[in-house]
Automatic annotation (TrEMBL):
Residues 304-316 have a biased composition (Polar residues). GO terms for molecular function: ATP binding; protein serine/threonine kinase activity. CDD domains: STKc_PknB_like. SMART domains: S_TKc. Residues 304-330 are annotated as: Disordered. The lineage of its organism: Bacteria, Bacillati, Actinomycetota, Actinomycetes, Mycobacteriales. This is non-specific serine/threonine protein kinase. Residues 22-319 form the Protein kinase domain. PANTHER family: MITOGEN-ACTIVATED PROTEIN KINASE KINASE KINASE 20-RELATED (PTHR43289), SERINE_THREONINE-PROTEIN KINASE NEKL-3 (PTHR43289:SF6). Keywords: ATP-binding, Kinase, Nucleotide-binding, Serine/threonine-protein kinase, Transferase. The keyword Acyltransferase does not apply. Its EC number is 2.7.11.1.
């Protein structure tokens, strides 16, 4: 037997092989409710994931097994681009239930958080919202389906999958619906199973310090899912376990402005107010939907976000004003900037054009604003302190066409800003095809996606010529949010 399958009973392997035409490959993960394995569905010639439940009550009760089958079938009817689809379910001869799901190749949010903790780099508000918006939409879909509404009850980073680019999935995916609650079906959770992860559970479902939940008839609600969802945003922004925010005197989550990464004062106040409301111990005080919560926490209004989501298609398009232009109170005296419009793109391999732009540059000196004073003055939000989105910046050598040069990031992702000399112009480096002129009425830029992996931007309203290049797996997505002009 394959060593990767040694913990799986041979009778289970045989059943899947002969009854489901499925070959078990290896385990993907496990938890209190069961183990997930990667399998090959031979009849379909595709990889899927199978979850085999480990709940003794289900094995001993035919009634509970039937209830489980009905609930999984209901979950199989869910159709949302950010919900991992349940494809099929069954029961082993021993009475152990299982179900098949789509296999999403990638990682999960728990691992991303662990990685950031090891680096000591907090997620920015922008990064956090980008990760969580698809999940908010998925939860709203689950919660507002009338009599077919579903409460997840185990919202946590490990149940938010981050697909690889090549997977084709549109953003983060919500998974692990093995024990959810349907309002249309008497749920198996009502039998007294301990469901959920204590540190992400809403207070009405049990003790927030990890103790056994009080009571066995907890039904959960959209508001309890929303509470767990807000804890994840709090953890992304602080890299601190939610239980560390509990006020011993009140048992409530205590959120203050000083706990978050650098951001504009108005943005921080808005964020804290939204978190305080969604993390209230009183469910009725929380937001009606997860999207409402993120709308309140976001510096971008719903109308502006809807506009930003549309693809660029014509020259001289109108750009929405950034919240940075509307806010007069900021942590540091920096010039107001405008974010570019959202562009949807998948970024692939690197382009060789950058070699012609940055030929002769050497990245041997650490960041020092005095070495690129003009760039620092024109783009303080991009190269000041740690750089935009916490990318560390390094100084590059000048060339005959570049008088100042700074790179922020690493070989995998980042951006570079070049101040072009009198002999240089942005048109020397950007191809003539597919250059767009964008404007918000206050400033204009030239924008070009040179290849699937690189974006070039040239501000047009500055007294000097500057050229910005963005590269990496999320280059197009990153570039549209940069505070350029």
């Amino acid at each position: 037997m394959n060593d990767d399958r040694r913990d799986l009973k041979q009778s289970f392997i045989d059943h899947l092989d002969f009854k489901e035409d499925t070959h078990v490959l290896r385990p993907l993960g496990n938890g209190g409710m069961g183990t997930v394995y990667l399998v090959n569905r031979r009849s379909l010639d595709r990889l899927e994931a199978i979850k085999i439940l480990a709940v003794d009550d289900l094995k001993s009760s035919a009634e509970l097994r039937q209830r489980f089958i009905r609930e999984i079938r209901m979950l199989g009817s869910l159709r949302h681009p950010n919900i991992v689809r349940v494809n099929h379910c069954g029961v082993f001869p021993e009475g152990v239930p299982y179900f098949f799901m789509d296999y999403v190749e990638g990682t999960d949010l728990r691992h991303l958080i662990t990685e950031r903790k090891s680096q000591g780099i907090k997620f920015t508000l922008e990064e956090s919202l980008d990760l969580l918006w698809p999940i908010a939409k998925a939860l709203d879909y689950l919660h507002h389906r009338g009599k077919n509404s579903v409460i997840h009850r185990d919202i946590k980073p490990a149940n938010i999958l981050i697909p690889n680019e090549s997977s084709g999935y549109p953003g983060a995916m919500l998974t692990d619906f093995g024990i959810s609650i349907s309002h249309d079906i008497t749920s198996i959770t009502q039998t007294g199973f301990y469901v959920g992860t204590p540190k992400y559970m809403a207070p009405e479902l049990g003790s927030s310090d990890g103790a056994t939940p009080n009571g066995t008839g907890m039904s959960g609600s959209a508001k309890s899912d929303g509470y767990s969802f807000a804890l994840i945003l709090l953890e992304l922004l602080t890299l601190t376990s939610p239980k560390n925010f509990i006020d011993p005197a009140t048992g409530a989550i205590d959120v203050s402005e000083s706990q978050f990464p650098p951001m504009q004062i108005d943005d921080r106040r808005r964020l804290v107010a939204a978190l305080q409301q969604e993390l209230s111990n009183v469910p009725a005080r929380r937001f009606a939907t997860c999207s409402d919560f993120l709308d309140a926490a976001s510096p971008i209004s719903p109308a502006q976000r809807s506009e930003n989501a549309s693809a660029l298609s014509v020259n001289d398009e109108t750009l929405p004003e950034s919240v940075h232009m509307n806010s007069s109170s900021v942590d540091t005296p920096v010039r107001a900037h405008t974010s570019l419009k959202k562009i949807t793109a998948l970024i692939g391999a690197g382009s060789t054009l950058v070699a012609s732009l940055f030929a002769g540059a050497s990245w041997l000196r650490s960041s020092n604003d005095s070495q690129y004073p003009d760039i620092a003055a024109e783009f303080p939000q991009l190269v000041g302190n740690k750089g935009w989105r916490d990318h560390p910046c390094k100084t590059g050598s000048s060339t005959d066409k570049i008088s100042q040069l700074v790179e922020c990031g690493n070989s995998n992702e980042g951006y570079a800003i070049a101040k072009l000399s009198s002999t240089g112009s942005w048109s020397d480096f950007m191809p003539e095809e597919d250059i767009r002129t964008l404007s918000n009425g206050k400033c204009k830029i030239k924008f070009s996606k040179v290849s699937d992996s690189e974006v070039f931007i040239a501000p047009l309203d500055l007294t000097e010529n500057y050229l910005i290049k963005v590269w990496g797996a999320q280059a197009a997505e990153e570039s549209v949010n940069m505070p350029i002009c």
